[in-house]
Design brief:
The chain is mainly β. Helices cover 7% and strands 45% of the residues. The N and C termini lie far apart (57 Å).
Length: 468
Amino acid sequence: MNISPRLRFQRAHSLRTKISQVLMGCISALGITTLSHAGNPIISHTYTADPAARVFNGRMYVITSHDQDNATDYSSLVDYNLISSDDMVNWQDHGIVFNVRKDTKWAKLAYAPDWVLKDNKYFLFFPDGADAIGVAVADKPEGPYKDYLGKPLIDRKTPNADVKWLFDPGVFIDDDGRAYVYFGGGGGPGNGRVIEVSSDFKSVKGSAITIEPPYFFEAPYVIKRNGIYYYSYSTDPDSKIRIDYMTSDKPTSGFKHRGTVIPNPWEDNGNNNHQSIVQWGNQWYIFYHNRAISNERGKSDYQRSVNVDLLSFGADGSMSANPSREGVPQLKNFNPYTLVQAETLEKESGGIEVERFSEALAVAFTDNSWIKVAKVDFGAGAEGIELRVAAAADGKIEVILDDVKNAPAAVIPVKATGDLTKFTTQAVKLSGLKGVHDVYYKAKGRINLDTYKYVPVTGSAPLDHKTK
């Protein structure tokens, strides 16, 4: 029987998954709770993979594949999740922004995406499994997205698109405005492609061009720096699934292998990876995924989590990164005096969820669950808070500073709204909150929190939270 490289690799890791589940059962029996996460992975309340990172309007946005909690293969990849941040540490979850089974009439699967901003529109390129690539469009990063063409942009009828896996679009717009889609995968030579597409993304131009990276497996992604085109990609299982790269002075040919950007990252179980590389200000970042949270919780290799680390360039044009648990520095302190979407957090514990209600996208707290927001700057102090909340019964939210084990610095009473889907705005007076702190919000009772905004002490000047 001819078994695909991906399936063969997945089977090879099933034993590790079973061992992990047994160990987690022992840990639970001993009464040890699961750990919370700071740094990498960047979110832990939902499983995300294949990060496509872009900077839009002064924020880092990352659209991701969405692994289901109970997935045992990739057949349940049907939608995309979006997160964003203006400080690289506290991430806002925008929820599901596109579902191919609901929002198209032809696609059934949603594998690794990419997206670009062009002509004030956001274009999302999505693979229908490993057989076609479509395009969706929206007026805002968070959507709503609509199927742009009603059919694939690239499929197996496209000239020279005869790759084993027709997926993993990497979209690149050159300085001259010409747009290219890099795609392909499957292991072995001859499965990398690039094709130029029309300026309106409605058609392709000519035939796809073959690119043959050494050890090529999947995840082609191209950036340009100082006139050099960098083609990064995932290598195959036989080469331990690294992110390697090539360079050229042309976007479609002449690429030469330069080395490895990152090895198979920590807690990835030697399994698949998918990267994106993006510049923000003077700093370059590399996004990728691993299985750290899945390993901790006794899940499988099919529950992945997005990470980010700094990426650097050498004087010779080489590039490298060090996949780490620490992640990246926070760019600025967090301002609590603007309207905050509660699903903005650096860390969580206790099984919080981000759920979409008819009125709001909100954090659904269970009793004793909490979220953390890093480096909140209260300045001279806060004298109150306004929050939009829903609760079937009276409860409260404890505000804990710096360490979740500390006594609450403030307690926010939450009045019952009659229903967990009925949100009301409640105002509460507070004291004792000033200076810069990590802030934990710990629920006592079942509470859904939509937004909150602190009120500064009377006469205090507004804070100026500039990027560091």
